[in-house]
Amino acid sequence: MTDHALRLPAEWEPQAAVLIAWPHAGTDWAERLAAVETTYVALAAAVTRFQPLIVVVADAALCAHVQAQLRGAGVDLSRVRFVELPYDDTWLRDSGPITLVDGGGGFQLTDFRFTGWGGKFGAEQDDALVAGLAHAGVFGQAAHKRIDWALEGGGIESDGDGSILTTWRCLVQRHPEQSREEMSAILRGSLHADRVLWLDHGYLEGDDTDAHIDTLARFAPGDRIVFQACDDTADHHHDELQRMGEELAALRTTDGRPYRLHPLPWAQPILDEGRRLAASYANYLIVNGAVLVPAYGDSADAEAARIVGEAHPGRVVVQVPCRPLIWQNGSLHCITMQLPAGIA
């Protein structure tokens, strides 16, 4: 494998599988475990319609429990692989591998340091997850490269062609001692990218990732960007997301054209014991032949699914109930990590 050929594929490129970790009583989901398992079962059913699913479980008892849950939901267990490993929590978008590919069929598991979103939560087991999965043979002969620099998979978007999209709010929190130029150089070097596009605006109340890009704006095929908008002028998110939309409109493709923008509708505020939850429709997951879109039981769900489908033509649109997820400050994309075709 030659380093110069490495690149970070776009999510819409062919995939081998989706990787998730199942919630259990030892995770932060314990208080509402039954509710969140309904989302995980729905997610597993949706993914396995289109491709394999790899499920990390804490022990044999949890594995048997999950198998029973999935079997009861009619999931084809021949498309599910279980791997027993310890983990702190289930946000595999951020603790899982960022996989680079090369033109010769090789892969590199880029294993950045996971700090529990800047030290907010314990993360020792999650930080060891990529190495554990590699040791278990989940990724075949893929090279494993550890990078001692904090970065979460939800903090970056790739168009598969050398452009990375990210947010200043997140990375300056992780690396306050570094300049934008220094961080851009690290991202370009470690991800083998040509350029880094930064957003200075955009956030969601109830998101403790410090404005991960996958809650705000997503690359889509054909030089498109799908982003979370807010049309409610009375909502305190309005001005910030309006400014983010203006930043996106000012971005240019590598050949100097504006991106085709797809603004997503705004869900009505969802509160939990007075706390605002981050109901982002941008946090969708692309799989082979389909796109899985969060649903929150809001009147905007259907329009969000339509717009995401429009931005990803030729794919089946499947809505997945995600209201239980946002209680723990994330959504559908946050709990998953896709693996590129050929790796598993």
TrEMBL record:
Species of origin: Rhodanobacter denitrificans
Hydrolase in keyword set: yes
SUPFAM superfamilies: Pentein
Gene Ontology BP annotations: putrescine biosynthetic process
InterPro entries in the record: Peptidyl-Arg-deiminase_porph
Pfam families named among the record's database cross-references: PAD_porph
PANTHER family for the chain: AGMATINE DEIMINASE-RELATED (PTHR31377:SF0)
Name of the protein this chain belongs to: Peptidylarginine deiminase-like enzyme
A GO molecular function held by the record: protein-arginine deiminase activity
Gene3D superfamilies, per database record: L-arginine/glycine Amidinotransferase, Chain A
Keywords: Hydrolase
